[in-house]
Amino acid sequence: MSDSWTSRLLDLLGSPAAMAGSYVESLLPAAAAQGLPVDVLLAEADIEPEQLALPGYRLPLYKAFRLLLAAERHSQDDLTALRLAAAVRPRSFQVLGYAAMSCTTLGEAIQRLQRFEALVWDIGDTRLELQDQWAVLTWQPRLLPWVPRQAVEMALGGWLAFGDWLSEGRARPLRVEFRHELDEAACSALLGCPVQGNAGRHAVIFARELLDLPLREADPHLRSLMDAQGEACLANYRLHSNLANEVRAALCTGLGQGDCSLESTAERLQLSPRMLRRRLSEAGLSLADLQDEVRQDLALLYLRHTDFSLLDIAYLLGFAEQSSFSRAFRRWTGRPPAEYRRENGLQGPEKGHGGPA
């Protein structure tokens, strides 16, 4: 197992970046329609299906990516992410989707995408560049130094599917570009337009005149309501909507430094201990439960992707003894850690993970 790959996974697990649970849930029927074992995929990614249905739930990006990669592994199809993205509809994007749907023109809808994308997932920047008669919609990672290429394909594929739905098939792109290598012919056939791999950017290129294309569901009143709701969600995002993942990231850092106390966690979040305690209580969260979740995620990562001894892993997770770690792992998984490692250990990067996006 390469140190660089382990470092990437640790960076991802220690990031507060998250994806809307509603987005993931909306694509599960499409996964089932493709013959994928949805329950198995969720279990492999350590995702509780009931969580995805909770209003406002933010799925840690680490688990969302694991789910997407597991889907591709089970399907043995490099186009899995693009096929799933074809099912994106307004419901998938929630506030962003309904705000965009109610806009008057495609250009206005793209403005909502740029403004509210973080409410779907908060790892990238979407930019619109105008070049003579062309419009170029680009995406690049912001919070993370890399993302799996499947996630990039899901993002751009979702744009295409949503734009096609909004415009009733009238807003067809001229070309789609990806920075990573891919099967250009197969992707072009699936997306219905030329696709270029090994490009200098992740982008969708279309005729500039399409920005003025009227949309079928234009509703100024609904757009105003969704804009207001979106702005409110953004204003309270970090320490309200995404509080659980912010705390998880702080706890991940704390475990590495040997201090996960309420006081140290609050300091990392630039809050007072009293304020953190209150916000956790208001959100129905427990610092102890969140620490338990982080320990479990880290334990599974270390057992799958490193050759660290069980004693080393126990210390890295803040346990005083290996026996305490073993008892906790049995509680999490129903199995001893040594048995789990024998069956799942030392997994390397899966085909197509790719480098920095």
UniProtKB/TrEMBL annotation:
The keyword DNA-binding applies. GO terms for cellular component: cytosol. Residues 338-357 are annotated as: Disordered. Pfam families: Arabinose_bd, HTH_18. InterPro entries: AraC-type_N (IPR032687), Homeodomain-like_sf (IPR009057), HTH_AraC (IPR018060), Tscrpt_reg_AraC-type_HTH (IPR020449). Keywords: DNA-binding, Transcription, Transcription regulation. It comes from the Bacteria. GO terms for molecular function: DNA-binding transcription factor activity; transcription cis-regulatory region binding. Coiled coil: none annotated. Residues 245-343 form the HTH araC/xylS-type domain. PANTHER family: HTH-TYPE TRANSCRIPTIONAL REGULATOR GADX (PTHR47894), HTH-TYPE TRANSCRIPTIONAL REGULATOR VQSM (PTHR47894:SF1). This is AraC-like DNA-binding protein. It comes from Pseudomonas fluvialis.
